[in-house]
Amino acid sequence: MCGIIGFVGREPAAPILLDGLARMEYRGYDSAGVAVRSETKGLQVKKTKGRLKVLSDLIHGGADLEGNLGIGHTRWATHGEPNDINAHPHVSENGRIAIVHNGIIENYLELKEHLQKLGVTFQSETDSEVVAQLLEYHYNECHNMLEAVGRVLRRIEGSYAFGIICADYPNALIAARKDSPLILGYGENGNFIASDVTAIIKYTRDVAYMDDGEIAVLTADSIDVFDDELVPVEKHRSTVDWDVSAAEKGGYPHFMLKEIMEQPEAIRKTVSPRIKNGRVVLDDLHLTEEYVRDISRIFIIACGSSYHVGMVSKYNWEKLMRRPVEVTLASEFRYCDPLVDEKSLVVVISQSGETLDTMAAMREAKRRGGRTLAIVNVVGSSIAREADDVLYTWAGPEIAVATTKAYSTQLVLMDLVGLYLADLLGTVEQSEYDAILTEVQSLPEKMQEMLNRDTEDIQYFASRYFNHDSIFFIGRNLDYAMGMEGSLKLKEISYIHSEAYASGELKHGTISLIEQGTLVVALGTYAPLFDKAMSNVVEVKARGAEVLALTTEDFREKMEKTADATVAVPVTHPVLQPSLGVVPLQLFSYYVALQRGCDIDKPRNLAKSVTVE
Ligand code: M6R
């Protein structure tokens, strides 16, 4: 939530800040703002409600703001409505210090009251402004900006990534981080801070990841990092291997469509390096056979679509491993007094690696002695760095708020991990192991074949159903888990009310909602339960539902006899079928949202990376 950027160097800062913010707008798009410092004009702050485009037009692409030092922000509102005043940067009362913030200052009210008693006047309703005012207060005390930042950080509670500039320091940008991502970028013409590498990748791939409690002082030629006691820290620098085109639309109308199309390649990149000589090889996983045999319980923790991957994995892992697997929403897990102990393997799944609830749940699991394994897409993200083991999905940057390729790569990676653990436990037959492994490797090809097909039928269904107010996704077992993802995709980007139900549960209440013309997306791709799926289709049809069915090619004919419309996907091993089944669901959501004229890549009220509770 919220994207921050900062630049200090030998080039005009404003266009660089706007360009970086444009690549991070998926993190929040309620308002945007920049502060730039120049010799002649001092601190210039421009901020406005609405999309970045509004800000960019206001300052003519940055041309209006002079200066080679600046900070920028794109906001997902938490404290205070999205308006011009609550937009960042926030400026201290004397107008000499400007800050951008991502995170939440939990004790801001108490600090605000304290400063108000001292006579400070606040402009906004935000928690962030308190930091600008507090900085001025401490700076007036010690006349040293680094020291003032240190003092402020000791007083605030909560999460933060800050970019700070001060009129008295014409050549320095200060940054600090705790529990919100912040990256340092080492460029040729200057140095950067950013919430996400995509913002600065056009300028540099040479980066370092700030750790909690660290403060950085950047000039055009240097980056010095300090710990919370202001003792210098040596940072490990790494090279980002994504290229700029990965974060651009490349001719597609939306990032979501581009990312749907990139799935075969993303799966290939995630799977190929991990299969050698007919075996799953997970070099980065440091679990001994002895430890695995001793695992009494497996927890999978995640939010949103990552949680839905966990749901699929629960079915598959229990089948393969014969061990209890509990899937819990991270926001519930952290407060449920979980029964985690030293014999618990706790798997956390997160595309961004920054989701606050997932991070907190992981920390709670660690505190209770569990061993944590993170499945993460963003290299160097907080969850990746804190987990005992991390396995990366190689989906590349995912920009659309609605996840597609990250979901798909999480799914296959979890399948590989399940297979690997089952093999260590000796709970999977060799023939089954080989069959799954062969099919995992053919997924990219089968998916590509689906994506190469004309999507006219899906576009037609979208045009036929886009006006429905409420849509149900029904299925059993893996189809139910996949339906959860189909339903979330649809509701988040098209704003149509939608629910996923386990088909067998319908008659215990929900079927009362089915009436003439209700759209039901019936999922029947899981071969072992196809007949049961058919019975449920018949049941809802009998109550007047219009049924759009999804099945596999070998069941198409049977399904077509009952459903109003049918989409069929290629057959693969049953445990992998959701990897193919989800693609038409993604496309259906995409085309429905397109028909409804929705802002597909940036749906209302949402942000890509949820770094608040
Ligand atoms: O980055 P994470 O995987 O931890 O994010 C979790 C959810 O916020 C995320 O999957 C969300 O549900 C998706 N944007 C849905 O498309």
In CATH, the topology of the largest domain is named Glutamine Phosphoribosylpyrophosphate, subunit 1, domain 1
What global shape is seen? globular
- Our count of domains comes out at 3
In angstroms, what is the radius of gyration? 25 Å
Largest sheet: 8 strands, antiparallel
Mean pLDDT: 94
Q: Which structural class do you get from the secondary structure elements?
A: alpha/beta
The helical percent reads 25-40%
- What is the CATH architecture descriptor of the largest domain? 4-Layer Sandwich
How many β-strands, per DSSP? 27
Distance between the termini: 11 Å
What kind of oligomer do you see?
single chain
Strand arrangement, largest sheet?
A: 3-2-4-1-10-9-11-15
The CATH fourth-level homologous superfamily of the largest domain? Aminohydrolase, N-terminal nucleophile (Ntn) domain
Beta-strand percentage range: 15-25%
The total of helices stands at 19
* CATH class annotation of the largest domain: Alpha Beta
- Uncertain ranges: none
What small-molecule ligands were found?
A: 5-amino-5-deoxy-1-O-phosphono-D-mannitol
Summed up, what is this model?
The chain is built from 19 helices and 27 strands.
How would you describe this protein?
With 613 residues, the protein is an alpha/beta fold. The protein folds into three domains: 3-241, Glutamine Phosphoribosylpyrophosphate, subunit 1, domain 1; 248-428, 3-Layer(aba) Sandwich (Rossmann fold); 449-601, 3-Layer(aba) Sandwich (Rossmann fold). The protein is 36% helix and 23% strand. The protein contains 19 helices and 27 strands. The strands form five sheets. An eight-stranded antiparallel β-sheet has the order 3-2-4-1-10-9-11-15, with helices on one face. The protein has a seven-stranded antiparallel β-sheet with strand order 5-6-7-8-12-13-14. Strands 19-18-20-21-22 form a five-stranded parallel β-sheet, sandwiched between helices. Helix 3 packs across helix 4, helix 7 (263-271) runs parallel beside helix 13 (405-425) and helix 9 packs antiparallel against helix 16 (478-494). It is globular and about 75 Å long.
